[in-house]
# Entry
Amino acid sequence: MATNLINVTKTLQKLVINSRCGFSPTLIRSTDQDLTKNTIFYNPSRNTNFFNKLPASDLWKGITSVSNAGKKRGRGKNVSKSKIKDLNRGQIIGVGKANIIWPGLSAPIIRGRELVEQQQLPEDPEREKKLNQLRDQMGTFKRTKLSPIERDTFEGFDTKVLELKTVFNMKGNFGRKRRLSVLAVTGNKNGLGGFALGKGLEAKTALRKAKNRAGQNYIKTILCVMTFFTQYGQTKIYVWKKPEGHGLICHRAIKTICETIGIKDLHAKVEGSTNVGHIIKAFFLGLIRQKTPEEMAEEKKLHLVEFCKENNYFPNVIASPKECRKAEEIPKDEILDFTQYCFDGKVVLKKKKFPPFYTKLKSYELYLKRQERIRNQQAVRNNLIAEYGEIQSFLTTQYPECRQYKLPKKEEEEQT
# Structure
């Protein structure tokens, strides 16, 4: 009897150790009439495995992701996140396969004046079907988001290419990859414009990308450009406001931008780097940051007055602040010059013009002596034709013989 009890206790100790390691014991009593011949059997079974050690995100990642070496070789391009399903979707805490009412979890503890007790309800055969439908419909109900290209029609917009070049990208596994880069600007000639950079294997693809991106990132500006200074990197641009009919006297990139936006009169000078991308960015920054005459007058709290040669330098007040400062309130070192104020105190670099090298030669002196007798001859001829209608002397009214008796060959050809 004592030996059997010792064997039973040893077996129980082993069971406890095995249960801690993940084995589940099973107690089976023998049918023998002798109670001392009871035996205990246990079946080894693991309760922990790969699927309940890791979270669901890591398990899905093991199915849908690709290794770094596979990504370099172009694998996993067709694998999408839409295949991932949330298995907890549609499930409620306290509700499972066994349809049981749990007071305080899936049902209230007190209902009216009665205390709710635990109760088992009949199983729902449609539960699994409904959960599978919810999991299959994941990712299908998405809000339709339209891009700016689909929202706007972009009617009246014109696109021009500023730079088209071939670029190369070198990689260790793919080698040298060739693409085309297009820098384009677009505008509607009414104050709207934008620029973008697009790349593609073909020129059409790169141009389409640049055009669409430029349409998405357009800005709005005033057509009457003010005098301003702008800078991006080592590129500096000085812009002067000009009257109507002056035209566009500036860099080709700035001229193209003005034509697409609708600016007609402007003079600009570029200093420093002439990188086309930097010039475009600097000019657009200047268009955004430029100040109106009202803002300038309000910032300085002074009247903005214009002196024009066409008005005989008569002062013309363009903008006035709400409260104007007096002469005593203006400090002596304050910048009152309009050009320097618009250029943030910077001065345009004016290079000294040196005379040509041939002015020091002896032959140039002889040339000037020969040209002295016909100096300003063409200007005098043009003035006579404009005033009298023909080349004649101021004494022709008194002496009719003072006329040009024979026209030069060039004038005869022009008249015929």
DSSP finds 14 helices and 16 strands in the chain.
